[in-house]
Amino acid sequence: MTPGENREQLSSYGIAVDVGTSSIWSRLVDMSNGRVIDTHVVPNPQKEHGADISTRLGLAAEDPGVRAELHRLVIATLNSSVEFLCADAGIDPAAVGELVAVGNSAMYAFLLDVDPAPLCGTPYNLKGAQDFYGPAGELGVAPPGANLFIPRPIFGYVGSDALADILLVDMAGSESLELIVDVGTNCEMALGNRERIVVASSPAGPAYEDTHMSFGLSATEGAIYKARLEGGQFVYEVVGGGEPKGICGSGLIDIIAELRRHEWVDEGGRLLREGPVVIAPGDSPITVGQHDIRSFQLVKASVHAAISVLQSKIGSADLGRMLITGTFGSYINLDNARVLKMFPDLPNEQVEVVADAACQGAVLMLGAGKREALAGLREGIRHVALPLNKQFQDEFIRLMAI
Fold it and tell me: What's 3-153's CATH class?
């Protein structure tokens, strides 16, 4: 028995982490029975170097100092999350013997401080990426003697967070087709069942949050996350209940769906009123204009077209269930998403919305036996490249309509 294995047997607790581009989720788990004791979520501090993956990758590839800082920030956040969870539960951090961290391909590179340049150009893949399994202290993570497991990405921009999603819904054991749509600044999709699983990724978050929107904001305090049109004016709800500072993805979906319902926007996405439309009046009014609508159309068409390609690869569009996840997904109004043709048209009872599916899936990776089972699961997953796929291009044009 190796020292690491002995540590795993004797320790009582594990921590699973999903390192997202916008938020970092972590869960403290009692390893004796699998019970989740506590959950913690914090913003990813890397956002100061770019709200989206592309910006961070570009900066890190060009500047070793930025790359080192992105690594430092994510490791520091892992440590503070572990410290918080243990303190909150009254647990000695030394009793944590197992850590798992999943994330998209960029977050994998930043966690391990490997060269991210391959993700900046075709084929957008970290060739030679390997699972990391060793003492947490090797990466500066506390407690240093705990076993740390960081699974490698599936392929391209489809990271181990998608692997965790697939594990959570037991896609490989399902008779019916399961669809997972993980909406972040990069949207990852998985479709399949016990016979076959296919995955793909498509840019998503920039039009839903703060990169391309006039008043975009991630789903944090001050973001309008729900909205409806009443008597020609918008009524809205704000994260945290204070004054609005911007609009997050779910709020944008509500607003554009209402504009479409009331025929303020046509099927092609053209704003039929003199704009921009005021959502929250004031000295510095928060608005949605033609540019915001077009940005939304580009992204929702890209995501839905990617799903259509996966359905074609599987040879069926008969879905049993769809899981929508990501921080964005936690507030989404499914009826409004349906109005805008964002996803395949399923009744609400066949759609599940989970904010932290990847973190929940990462919990299932805790323990040596679970890691061994992942190898078989990964073997059955196939990646679908979209950029040069003609069907994707055709579907993208068709699905621009709202």
Answer: alpha beta
